[in-house]
Amino acid sequence: MNASDSLSRRLREYLAHLAVERGLSQHTLSAYNRDLTRYVDFLKSEGIAELNDVTRALVSRYPEVLREGSDGKSTLSPSSAARAIVAVRGWHKFERLEGHTDHDPAAAIKPPGTQKRLPKAITVDQVQQLIDGAQTAPHPLGLRDRALVEVLYGTGARITEAVSLALDDIDLETGALRLFGKGRKERIVPIGQYAIEAVEAYVVRCRPILATGGKGSPTLFLNQRGNPLSRQSAWAVLQDAAHRAGLTVKISPHTLRHSYATHLLAGGADVRVVQELLGHASVATTQVYTLVTPDTLREIYLTSHPRAR
Q1: Are residues 69 and 128 in the same domain?
Q2: Which residue is catalytic, options 96, 244, 257, 258?
Q3: Which of 39, 153, 260, 289 is catalytic?
Q4: In a domain, 223, yes or no
Q5: What is the CATH number of the domain that holds 249?
Q6: Whether residue 258 lies in the annotated active site
Q7: CA angle, corner 125, sides to 192 and 286, nearest 5?
Q8: Which domain holds residue 65?
Q9: Tell me: the pLDDT tens digits for 19-57?
Q10: Out of 9, 12, 182, 298, which one is annotated catalytic?
Protein backbone atom coordinates (compact mmCIF):
# COMPACT_ATOMS: atom_id res chain seq x y z
CA MET A 1 0.00 0.00 0.00
CA ASN A 2 1.47 3.36 -0.95
CA ALA A 3 1.62 6.44 1.29
CA SER A 4 -1.36 8.04 -0.37
CA ASP A 5 -3.59 4.95 0.16
CA SER A 6 -2.50 4.38 3.75
CA LEU A 7 -2.85 7.95 4.96
CA SER A 8 -6.11 8.52 3.11
CA ARG A 9 -7.60 5.28 4.45
CA ARG A 10 -6.65 6.16 8.02
CA LEU A 11 -8.22 9.57 7.59
CA ARG A 12 -11.47 8.12 6.23
CA GLU A 13 -11.67 5.74 9.18
CA TYR A 14 -11.15 8.55 11.65
CA LEU A 15 -13.79 10.75 10.01
CA ALA A 16 -16.20 7.81 10.10
CA HIS A 17 -15.48 7.45 13.83
CA LEU A 18 -16.25 11.15 14.38
CA ALA A 19 -19.50 10.86 12.46
CA VAL A 20 -20.78 7.59 13.93
CA GLU A 21 -19.27 7.33 17.40
CA ARG A 22 -19.18 10.97 18.33
CA GLY A 23 -22.10 12.19 16.22
CA LEU A 24 -20.46 15.39 15.01
CA SER A 25 -22.45 17.69 12.76
CA GLN A 26 -21.86 17.77 9.01
CA HIS A 27 -20.43 21.29 9.33
CA THR A 28 -17.91 20.17 11.96
CA LEU A 29 -17.02 17.07 9.97
CA SER A 30 -16.37 19.23 6.90
CA ALA A 31 -13.98 21.37 8.95
CA TYR A 32 -12.14 18.27 10.23
CA ASN A 33 -11.95 16.87 6.71
CA ARG A 34 -10.56 20.13 5.33
CA ASP A 35 -7.99 20.56 8.10
CA LEU A 36 -6.81 16.95 8.11
CA THR A 37 -6.69 16.64 4.32
CA ARG A 38 -4.28 19.56 4.31
CA TYR A 39 -2.28 17.80 7.04
CA VAL A 40 -2.16 14.61 4.96
CA ASP A 41 -0.91 16.61 1.97
CA PHE A 42 1.79 18.09 4.20
CA LEU A 43 2.85 14.63 5.41
CA LYS A 44 3.04 13.35 1.84
CA SER A 45 5.23 16.30 0.84
CA GLU A 46 7.58 15.31 3.69
CA GLY A 47 7.82 11.75 2.41
CA ILE A 48 5.74 10.23 5.20
CA ALA A 49 4.34 6.80 4.28
CA GLU A 50 2.55 5.88 7.51
CA LEU A 51 1.20 7.78 10.51
CA ASN A 52 3.57 5.75 12.64
CA ASP A 53 6.45 7.49 10.82
CA VAL A 54 5.37 10.97 11.96
CA THR A 55 7.79 12.53 14.43
CA ARG A 56 7.19 15.09 17.14
CA ALA A 57 9.54 17.50 15.34
CA LEU A 58 7.43 17.27 12.19
CA VAL A 59 4.18 17.99 14.03
CA SER A 60 5.89 20.84 15.92
CA ARG A 61 6.73 22.50 12.59
CA TYR A 62 3.22 22.22 11.21
CA PRO A 63 1.68 25.24 13.07
CA GLU A 64 4.26 27.48 11.41
CA VAL A 65 3.41 25.96 8.02
CA LEU A 66 -0.24 26.92 8.60
CA ARG A 67 0.57 30.46 9.68
CA GLU A 68 3.06 31.09 6.89
CA GLY A 69 1.43 29.09 4.09
CA SER A 70 4.78 27.50 3.24
CA ASP A 71 2.96 24.45 1.88
CA GLY A 72 1.72 26.59 -0.98
CA LYS A 73 -1.76 26.95 0.50
CA SER A 74 -3.50 29.88 2.15
CA THR A 75 -2.20 31.23 5.45
CA LEU A 76 -4.46 30.67 8.44
CA SER A 77 -5.41 33.08 11.19
CA PRO A 78 -4.27 32.12 14.71
CA SER A 79 -7.77 30.85 15.55
CA SER A 80 -8.03 28.74 12.37
CA ALA A 81 -4.51 27.38 12.88
CA ALA A 82 -5.40 26.46 16.46
CA ARG A 83 -8.49 24.60 15.23
CA ALA A 84 -6.39 22.69 12.70
CA ILE A 85 -3.84 21.65 15.33
CA VAL A 86 -6.63 20.44 17.64
CA ALA A 87 -7.83 18.23 14.76
CA VAL A 88 -4.31 16.87 14.24
CA ARG A 89 -3.93 16.14 17.96
CA GLY A 90 -7.26 14.36 18.04
CA TRP A 91 -6.39 12.18 15.05
CA HIS A 92 -3.00 11.10 16.43
CA LYS A 93 -4.54 10.38 19.85
CA PHE A 94 -7.21 8.21 18.22
CA GLU A 95 -4.65 6.26 16.21
CA ARG A 96 -2.59 5.60 19.34
CA LEU A 97 -5.59 4.47 21.40
CA GLU A 98 -6.73 2.16 18.59
CA GLY A 99 -3.28 0.60 18.45
CA HIS A 100 -2.60 1.70 14.88
CA THR A 101 0.53 3.57 15.98
CA ASP A 102 2.99 2.93 18.80
CA HIS A 103 3.39 6.58 19.79
CA ASP A 104 1.56 9.90 19.75
CA PRO A 105 3.83 12.58 18.22
CA ALA A 106 1.25 15.33 18.77
CA ALA A 107 0.57 14.72 22.47
CA ALA A 108 2.84 17.51 23.68
CA ILE A 109 2.08 19.95 20.85
CA LYS A 110 0.07 22.93 22.00
CA PRO A 111 -2.33 24.71 19.64
CA PRO A 112 -0.97 28.14 18.71
CA GLY A 113 -2.27 30.93 20.88
CA THR A 114 -4.88 33.23 19.44
CA GLN A 115 -3.62 36.38 21.11
CA LYS A 116 -2.43 39.21 18.91
CA ARG A 117 1.20 38.73 17.95
CA LEU A 118 3.65 41.34 16.80
CA PRO A 119 4.30 41.11 13.06
CA LYS A 120 7.77 39.86 12.19
CA ALA A 121 9.96 42.40 10.46
CA ILE A 122 13.59 42.45 9.38
CA THR A 123 15.90 45.43 9.31
CA VAL A 124 16.65 47.56 6.26
CA ASP A 125 20.14 46.07 6.18
CA GLN A 126 18.70 42.55 6.19
CA VAL A 127 16.38 43.50 3.33
CA GLN A 128 19.43 44.61 1.36
CA GLN A 129 21.19 41.34 2.17
CA LEU A 130 18.16 39.44 0.90
CA ILE A 131 18.13 41.43 -2.34
CA ASP A 132 21.87 40.81 -2.78
CA GLY A 133 21.26 37.10 -2.20
CA ALA A 134 18.44 37.05 -4.75
CA GLN A 135 20.48 38.55 -7.55
CA THR A 136 23.24 35.96 -7.12
CA ALA A 137 20.94 33.24 -8.46
CA PRO A 138 22.16 31.63 -11.71
CA HIS A 139 21.75 33.85 -14.76
CA PRO A 140 19.19 34.94 -15.82
CA LEU A 141 17.10 33.97 -12.77
CA GLY A 142 18.95 36.41 -10.56
CA LEU A 143 17.25 39.26 -12.42
CA ARG A 144 13.82 37.75 -11.84
CA ASP A 145 14.47 36.91 -8.21
CA ARG A 146 15.78 40.37 -7.42
CA ALA A 147 12.78 41.96 -9.15
CA LEU A 148 10.40 39.76 -7.12
CA VAL A 149 12.02 40.71 -3.80
CA GLU A 150 12.08 44.39 -4.76
CA VAL A 151 8.38 44.30 -5.67
CA LEU A 152 7.39 42.50 -2.47
CA TYR A 153 9.31 44.87 -0.23
CA GLY A 154 8.74 47.97 -2.37
CA THR A 155 4.94 47.63 -2.46
CA GLY A 156 3.97 45.46 0.52
CA ALA A 157 2.13 43.16 -1.87
CA ARG A 158 0.80 39.83 -0.67
CA ILE A 159 2.52 36.90 -2.37
CA THR A 160 -0.64 35.99 -4.28
CA GLU A 161 -0.95 39.57 -5.50
CA ALA A 162 2.68 39.60 -6.66
CA VAL A 163 2.62 36.33 -8.60
CA SER A 164 -0.71 37.34 -10.18
CA LEU A 165 0.72 40.55 -11.62
CA ALA A 166 0.40 40.96 -15.37
CA LEU A 167 2.79 42.99 -17.48
CA ASP A 168 0.05 45.58 -17.95
CA ASP A 169 -0.38 45.98 -14.18
CA ILE A 170 2.89 47.85 -13.78
CA ASP A 171 3.66 51.28 -15.22
CA LEU A 172 7.41 51.79 -15.08
CA GLU A 173 7.17 55.37 -16.33
CA THR A 174 4.87 56.62 -13.59
CA GLY A 175 6.03 54.17 -10.95
CA ALA A 176 2.56 52.75 -10.27
CA LEU A 177 1.48 49.18 -9.67
CA ARG A 178 -2.04 47.75 -9.85
CA LEU A 179 -2.72 45.00 -7.33
CA PHE A 180 -5.79 42.83 -6.91
CA GLY A 181 -6.26 41.93 -3.26
CA LYS A 182 -8.77 39.84 -1.37
CA GLY A 183 -12.11 39.69 -3.13
CA ARG A 184 -10.41 41.00 -6.29
CA LYS A 185 -10.40 44.46 -4.74
CA GLU A 186 -8.18 46.67 -6.87
CA ARG A 187 -5.71 49.20 -5.50
CA ILE A 188 -2.97 51.30 -7.07
CA VAL A 189 0.27 51.60 -5.11
CA PRO A 190 3.48 53.50 -5.83
CA ILE A 191 6.63 51.56 -6.60
CA GLY A 192 10.05 52.99 -5.84
CA GLN A 193 12.98 53.56 -8.16
CA TYR A 194 14.93 50.52 -6.93
CA ALA A 195 12.01 48.24 -7.77
CA ILE A 196 11.38 49.99 -11.08
CA GLU A 197 15.00 49.43 -12.16
CA ALA A 198 14.92 45.79 -11.03
CA VAL A 199 11.67 45.05 -12.88
CA GLU A 200 12.89 46.85 -16.00
CA ALA A 201 16.11 44.79 -16.03
CA TYR A 202 14.11 41.60 -15.57
CA VAL A 203 11.56 42.43 -18.30
CA VAL A 204 14.24 43.41 -20.81
CA ARG A 205 17.00 40.88 -20.13
CA CYS A 206 15.42 37.86 -18.44
CA ARG A 207 11.71 37.47 -19.09
CA PRO A 208 12.06 37.04 -22.88
CA ILE A 209 14.40 34.10 -22.26
CA LEU A 210 11.98 32.46 -19.84
CA ALA A 211 8.98 33.17 -22.08
CA THR A 212 10.42 31.13 -24.97
CA GLY A 213 9.44 27.90 -23.26
CA GLY A 214 5.89 28.95 -22.40
CA LYS A 215 2.64 29.74 -24.15
CA GLY A 216 2.76 33.52 -24.18
CA SER A 217 1.51 34.14 -20.63
CA PRO A 218 0.89 37.82 -19.81
CA THR A 219 1.97 37.20 -16.20
CA LEU A 220 4.92 39.32 -15.08
CA PHE A 221 6.86 36.69 -13.16
CA LEU A 222 7.56 33.45 -15.02
CA ASN A 223 9.21 30.19 -14.05
CA GLN A 224 11.93 28.41 -16.04
CA ARG A 225 9.31 26.74 -18.22
CA GLY A 226 7.77 30.06 -19.21
CA ASN A 227 4.67 29.55 -17.10
CA PRO A 228 3.41 31.83 -14.32
CA LEU A 229 5.50 31.61 -11.16
CA SER A 230 3.50 29.84 -8.42
CA ARG A 231 3.16 30.89 -4.78
CA GLN A 232 5.24 27.91 -3.75
CA SER A 233 8.00 28.71 -6.22
CA ALA A 234 8.03 32.36 -5.12
CA TRP A 235 8.39 31.15 -1.54
CA ALA A 236 11.35 29.02 -2.62
CA VAL A 237 12.94 32.04 -4.33
CA LEU A 238 12.99 33.88 -0.98
CA GLN A 239 14.29 30.87 0.91
CA ASP A 240 17.11 30.39 -1.57
CA ALA A 241 17.97 34.09 -1.52
CA ALA A 242 18.06 34.11 2.28
CA HIS A 243 20.31 31.05 2.28
CA ARG A 244 22.75 32.59 -0.20
CA ALA A 245 22.76 35.82 1.82
CA GLY A 246 23.57 33.94 5.02
CA LEU A 247 20.48 35.24 6.81
CA THR A 248 19.54 33.24 9.89
CA VAL A 249 16.21 34.99 10.53
CA LYS A 250 13.04 33.43 9.15
CA ILE A 251 12.11 34.88 5.79
CA SER A 252 8.75 34.58 4.07
CA PRO A 253 6.71 36.75 1.68
CA HIS A 254 4.81 38.06 4.70
CA THR A 255 8.11 38.99 6.34
CA LEU A 256 8.65 41.51 3.55
CA ARG A 257 5.06 42.77 3.82
CA HIS A 258 5.47 43.22 7.57
CA SER A 259 8.81 44.95 7.06
CA TYR A 260 7.31 47.28 4.45
CA ALA A 261 4.60 48.41 6.88
CA THR A 262 6.92 48.62 9.87
CA HIS A 263 9.52 50.69 8.04
CA LEU A 264 6.87 53.06 6.67
CA LEU A 265 5.45 53.70 10.13
CA ALA A 266 8.90 54.05 11.65
CA GLY A 267 9.61 56.66 8.98
CA GLY A 268 6.59 58.71 10.03
CA ALA A 269 3.91 57.48 7.60
CA ASP A 270 0.31 57.91 8.74
CA VAL A 271 -1.33 54.62 9.75
CA ARG A 272 -4.33 55.27 7.48
CA VAL A 273 -2.05 55.77 4.50
CA VAL A 274 -0.33 52.49 5.29
CA GLN A 275 -3.78 50.88 5.57
CA GLU A 276 -4.57 51.93 2.00
CA LEU A 277 -1.18 50.78 0.72
CA LEU A 278 -1.58 47.35 2.31
CA GLY A 279 -5.18 46.97 1.19
CA HIS A 280 -6.51 46.38 4.71
CA ALA A 281 -10.27 46.68 5.03
CA SER A 282 -9.94 48.04 8.58
CA VAL A 283 -7.36 50.36 10.10
CA ALA A 284 -7.42 48.11 13.18
CA THR A 285 -5.57 45.46 11.16
CA THR A 286 -2.87 47.95 10.27
CA GLN A 287 -2.50 49.34 13.78
CA VAL A 288 -0.87 46.13 14.98
CA TYR A 289 2.25 47.27 13.13
CA THR A 290 2.50 50.29 15.39
CA LEU A 291 3.31 47.91 18.22
CA VAL A 292 6.61 47.18 16.53
CA THR A 293 7.81 50.77 16.83
CA PRO A 294 7.02 51.88 20.42
CA ASP A 295 10.05 54.15 20.58
CA THR A 296 8.81 56.07 17.55
CA LEU A 297 5.32 56.40 19.01
CA ARG A 298 6.68 57.57 22.35
CA GLU A 299 8.89 60.15 20.64
CA ILE A 300 5.92 61.50 18.69
CA TYR A 301 3.83 61.63 21.86
CA LEU A 302 6.51 63.44 23.86
CA THR A 303 7.06 66.03 21.16
CA SER A 304 3.41 66.51 20.22
CA HIS A 305 1.15 66.32 23.28
CA PRO A 306 0.92 69.52 25.36
CA ARG A 307 0.91 67.63 28.67
CA ALA A 308 3.42 64.93 27.79
CA ARG A 309 6.24 66.64 29.70
Answers
A1: no
A2: 257
A3: 289
A4: yes
A5: 1.10.443.10
A6: no
A7: 60
A8: 3-97
A9: 888 887 888 899 999 999 999 999 999 999 899 999 999
A10: 182
